[in-house]
Design a protein that fits this description.
Structural class: mainly alpha
Order of helices and strands: HH
Radius of gyration: 13 Å
Number of domains: 1
Oligomer: single chain
Shape: flat
Helix content: 25-40%
């Protein structure tokens, strides 16, 4: 996931606010787009880690 760039964070502060995600107690995976994940260089080998990232419980 290191290849994803967050250009919004480079905009002036009037355009964004940094916040920490609110943890989710029981996240569930509904669907994973493996083709898109591959295009974004996201490692899909550990689905539990993906769930933690995309639920906001873990920040990559």
């Amino acid at each position: 996931m290191e290849n994803i760039q967050n250009t919004y964070s480079e905009l002036p502060k009037d355009f964004h606010r940094s916040t920490r995600p609110t943890p989710v107690s029981k996240p569930k995976t509904l669907s994973i787009n493996y083709e898109l994940a591959n295009e974004l260089s996201i490692d899909t080998s550990d689905e539990m880690q993906l769930l933690e990232y995309f639920s906001g419980n873990t920040v990559p």
